[in-house]
Predict the 3D structure of the following.
Amino acid sequence: MNKSEFEAYIFDTFSVAADHPFGDHPEFAVYRHAGNRRWFALVMSVPRAKLGLDGAGSLDIVNVK
């Protein structure tokens, strides 16, 4: 599943769109519950080198509560 498919799944399932609260990382997306505004998922682009992986570029990482 890629990032756009994940975003579509979240919207179709929970009817919420991404929030981008981090000014220094506008590509990071936070998904919040509609009722209490607490986050339940965070999508980040992390450089492969920071994860100890070979190659250039970055990977999209999902943190789900």
